[in-house]
Amino acid sequence: MERGLAPGGAAFAAIPWGQPRQSTNESRFMMRIVSMLAVLLALLQAPALAVPVASVVTTGLRFPEGTVFVGNTLYFVDYAASAVYRLDDDLPVRIWQQGGCGANGLLEYHGGLLVACYDDGTLRQITLDGEAVGTVDSTAAGEHFDRPNDLAADGKGGAYFTASGGDEGTPGKVFHMPRSATHPLEVASGLQNANGIALSPDGKTLYLGESAKDRILQYRVAPDGSLSQRQVFIDLDAAGLAAAPRHTPDGIRTDKAGSVFVSLYNGGGFAILDPHATLVSEVALPGRHHSNLALSPDGREVYGTLVDDDPLQGPAGGLYRVANPLLP
After folding, report:
1. 82, 241, 252, 311: least buried by Cβ within 10 Å?
2. At a CB cut-off of 8 Å and minimum separation 6, what does 20 contact?
3. 55-249 sits in which CATH class?
């Protein structure tokens, strides 16, 4: 969070005629003293900056991901359990589980939920109670999806989603599934670990986390949903974030003002950028990794995921809640 000093100043008293004049060194010394006092006074008069402190909402999860609000209810997935949960009174309630899916991303979709299955390469549509609705497993041309990761609404009843790509050179991609379509269309390729995805409030800009390069890309969105004008939005390792070996983007969200919230899988918390890629705020969080986040419906709180590495038991995760640092 950027800090600013409240305006402050000091008046220098005139030296009366007939009084001995100070030497140049003494004058400079006195000016430094007065300047230091002025800065101290300004600091004392400046309002205290609120630093949001996160609280852990629930634990006992393995690898939570895919946080999304439907109304006032938070839904999320646990990748390790390949399951979808609903948060009731700060307790996770499992509503759906499918072995082999590797549930990773989640999106409110047509009155229910769309689940990105990272392991089996499919999208599963379910109701809010976990009833199966349908499965999408390929494009119209029969192309399958290599590790579906995260999803974003297109604002027109359709959805975008990322396919991370493989470890053997398979490129990451972005697909768009218009509202009336039965199969998605490939709209971007040539990515290295395509991950979090979000649209600007006006729907004209798409943000994409390229995790292997610790950066966020942006695309221009055409009325038909196609993407163009790819460019680097921000290199997170050069963004002035808290010192860490890497700052790896994972889940991405935007608010109504166009601010971009980036969950840092590596980097200690989440960052907030304005639409011009200027770092606005950074929030440190408990846990080693932070894969996703969601803004509460009133925008006053951020809910997200945290995971710690346990060399014996595997990952141990939970959910956190913290005040939105952009609001008073």
Report:
1. 311
2. none
3. mainly beta
